[in-house]
Amino acid sequence: MEEEQNDLEDEIEDPDEYSQRYDEIQKMIDDAESKKETAQDEIDSIEPDTEPTQEMVDRVVDSQVDEALNNPLQYIKNRDLNIKDFIDEDELAEGLISEDGYGIMNGYDGTYDSIYLDNESYYIMRVN
């Protein structure tokens, strides 16, 4: 302990030696941090060389299904899909008509007229 005490007193009396030891320790810390970052980069770049398990596949499928069910429009947009591929236009028109009447189909003023001709019903709307 006396020897350690003497070493500490020497450091106090000779700050240059202390400064040199501090610089050496700091360099060792910096080197260790650099090696740690390099190791982490290597870990991050490693790609698994195994085939995905059925559990992994099921997890991804479940995640995709949940995303599609919870926000279908966003799901379609995220994948640059065409929304028309997901809409049955005839069914959409029938649904709109059954809920709101034929006027919903008229983008001009919502009015329409109907005529019955040759056993067929025709709906007339202004569209411009």
What keyword list fits this structure?
single chain; 128 residues; mainly alpha; two-stranded antiparallel ribbon; rod-shaped
Structural overview:
This protein is mainly alpha-helical. It has a domain at 1-45. It is 62% helix and 8% strand. The chain has 5 helices and 2 strands; from the N terminus they run αααααββ. It has a two-stranded antiparallel ribbon. A hairpin with a 2-residue loop joins β1 and β2 (120-124). α3 (54-70) packs across α4. The chain is rod-shaped. The termini are far apart. The model has no long low-confidence stretch (mean pLDDT 83).
Strand and helix layout:
Elements: H1 2-13, H2 15-45, H3 54-70, H4 72-78, H5 89-100, E1 113-117, E2 120-124
Antiparallel strand pairs: 1-2
Helix pairs in contact: 1-2, 3-4
Report, as a whole number of angstroms, the end-to-end distance: 100 Å
Question: If strands are numbered along the chain, what order do they take across the biggest sheet?
Answer: 1-2
Task: Find the structural class using helix and strand composition.
Answer: mainly alpha
Radius of gyration: 38 Å
Q: Sketch the topology as an H/E string, one letter per element.
A: HHHHHEE
Given as residue ranges, the uncertain stretches (5+ residues, pLDDT < 50) are none
The geometry reads as: rod-shaped
DSSP strand count: 2
Fraction in helix: 55-70%
Sheet with the most strands, sense and barrel status:
2 strands, antiparallel
Number of helices: 5
Query: Mean pLDDT score, rounded?
Result: 83
